[in-house]
Amino acid sequence: MKRYVTGSIMIIILLGIGGWVFLQTPWMQETSSGTISSDDQGKSILELPVAEAGDRPVKEFELTAEETEWTIEGEESVNAWTYNGTVPGESLRVQKGDFVRVELKNELDVPVTIHWHGVVLENRMDGVPGVTQDAVEPGESFTYEFVADDPGTYWYHSHQHSSYQVDKGLYGPLVIEGDGPSVDKDKTFILDEWAVNQDREQWTNMTGMMMGSMNGDGEADTKQMYDTFTVNGKAGEAIPPLEMEEGETGRLRFVNAGYQQHRLVFPQGSMEMLATDAEKVEGTDGGNVLEIAPGERIDVLFKKGKGTEVIAHSSSVENASDMQIPVVSSEGEAHPLPEKDSQGSAVSGTSYESSELLFEELPKADVSYDMDLSMGMNMGEGMTWQINEKSFPDTPPIEVEEGDIVKVDITNEGRFNHPMHLHGHRFQVQSEDGGAVVKDLINVKPGESYTIYFEADNRGEWLFHCHDNNHADRGMVTIVDYEGVYSPFELNDINNP
Predict the structure, then answer these.
(1) How many CA atoms lie within 13 A of 451 on its CB side?
(2) Domain of 468: which CATH number?
(3) pLDDT number for residue 332
């Protein structure tokens, strides 16, 4: 699925220039006023057609953004921002074809939104402040409506200064039921990282970052920011066990809400992948280590073996012992962390081909876009993350017309991982041997290059950004800009966390 390109030493040079500046400034910079538009004429995104309930079943929810003192483990707690008082927020489960209506009420003292990560919906419901809506101010509310067309695992989170607000706990799971095998259990697990015993801002260990980048570790920055791993908002012994009896099967839905890649080790022979980013995959015979990138969703079929088992984070990283999911039966004692990380190979979101493709044959592109991912220096603000040597809102947009086939060549010549996520569309990751996987997020590691294709079939103004939101907040964002439509919202409306 990938080919390799030569890495650059420019990152090391940049890292040696001055101190590292914490990612405080939102990616929608204050200096960028005005609207996103392909020209001065055309139709506002608020004039585009919207879905109506009609005779569909209607599922209604209320989500209240509020401050909560949240216990991670034992006496360790954090001041969290939550939807409905828990981390993660309320689990939203609907059926394929349902009309979903969610009222967001904001009881925080800062603006918030909800982005429906991975859901293909109308542009005005996408939850991106300054692009598809104004952020919801304290004391106000906003109602999101969309049709749950595509079964699978999704999640929702704030897109208002998301590097900060998602870190504070503003996220939750969304499951659209209606596909997959019959199983005994169906559970969702959201993975995350927290700064519990340290200040999140203290990630200025230049030596550690430089050594990590020189050793090919694409996460030398994020590893310094956090000291605790969580599963559904809990760490270590506070993680509730998964209760299953020997021989039972479960659909386990994993969502990575953090900014660090995670590797989960399953009992040998117990797991096979079902879907990635809500797209079914096939040919899933493989290893027992699951690698999941920031923002990615992966569903697996798990079969319970004898006694008490554990699904545990690979021990190769610090804080791994925090992320262990006990799998217990009616009888059995606690099981220790596995002594070895793997008895098989690791699988990831690009390991298997999708069951249904967007393009059966390699399409001819109407629009081609080269996306070079890098890091730069703004002498006024410190380090920035760039697309084609520019930081948002100065990054070149992907300009399309409705119906275009769009080809994007994504190259990472830097030293850090960049999980690139496209809003409002699915894309096909194409390999030279004809294999392909359909996704909405691709983790581009240092030295990697991918070619993706998608059809411009959902008019609007759509983000394409790194889902290490720390990188997005410092500029690694561009826009898929449809001709003839524009956003009426002001980019400088989101200057506060």
Answers:
(1) 17
(2) 2.60.40.420
(3) 60
> In this predicted structure, what is the pLDDT of residue 496?
46
Strand-strand pairing, 99-106 and 58-73: parallel
Q: Are 3 and 447 in contact (CB under 8 A)?
A: no
Q: Both 172 and 251 in a single domain?
A: no
Kindly state whether residues 7 and 23 are assigned to the same domain.
yes
pLDDT-based confidence at 284, cuts 50/70/90?
confident
| Backbone φ, ψ for residue 164 (5° rounding) | -90, -45
- Is the pLDDT higher at 208 or at 324? 324
Residue 413 lies in a domain: yes
Query: Per the omega criterion (within 30 degrees of 0), is the bond before 419 cis?
Result: no
- Yes or no: say if 63 and 90 are a contact pair by the CB < 8 Å rule: yes
pLDDT at 14: 37
Pick the residue with more confidence: 284 or 162? Answer: 162
pLDDT tens sequence across 129-158: 999 999 999 999 999 999 999 999 999 999
What's the CA dihedral at 417, 422, 425, 427 to 10 degrees? -30
How far is CA 370 from its chain centroid? 22
Q: Show the tokens assigned to 49.
A: 């057609």
User: Do the domain assignments include residue 40?
Assistant: no
| Inside any domain, residue 38 | no
Whether 445 and 400 share a structural domain: yes
Enclosing H/E stretch for 292? strand 289-292
Binding site members for Cu cation = 117, 157
**What are the angstrom distances between the C-alpha of 167 and each of 78, 112, 225, 327?**
11, 13, 11, 27
Task: Give the integer Cα–Cα distance in Å for 251 and 302.
Answer: 6
Whether residues 378 and 281 fall in one domain: no
Are residues 429 and 437 in contact, defined by beta-carbon separation less than 8 angstroms? yes
Binding residue ranges: 117, 157
Do the domain assignments include residue 377? Answer: yes
Per-residue pLDDT, averaged over 233-254, amounts to 96
Query: Are 63 and 162 found together in one domain?
Result: yes
Would you list the DSSP string of 353-373?
Answer: EESS-S-SSPPPPSEEEEEEE
Q: How many domains does the chain have?
A: 3
Same domain, 337 and 368: no
d(C-alpha 308, C-alpha 215), whole Å? 37
Q: Are residues 202 and 342 in the same domain?
A: yes
Instruction: For residue 324, give its domain range.
Output: 190-352
Burial of 339 per CB tally in 10 Å (0-12, 13-18, 19+):
exposed
Summarize pLDDT for 205-230 with one digit per residue, the tens: 444 444 445 555 688 777 778 899 99
Q: Compute the distance between CA of residue 69 and CA of residue 88 in angstroms, rounded to an integer.
A: 13
Which pTM does this prediction carry? 0.90
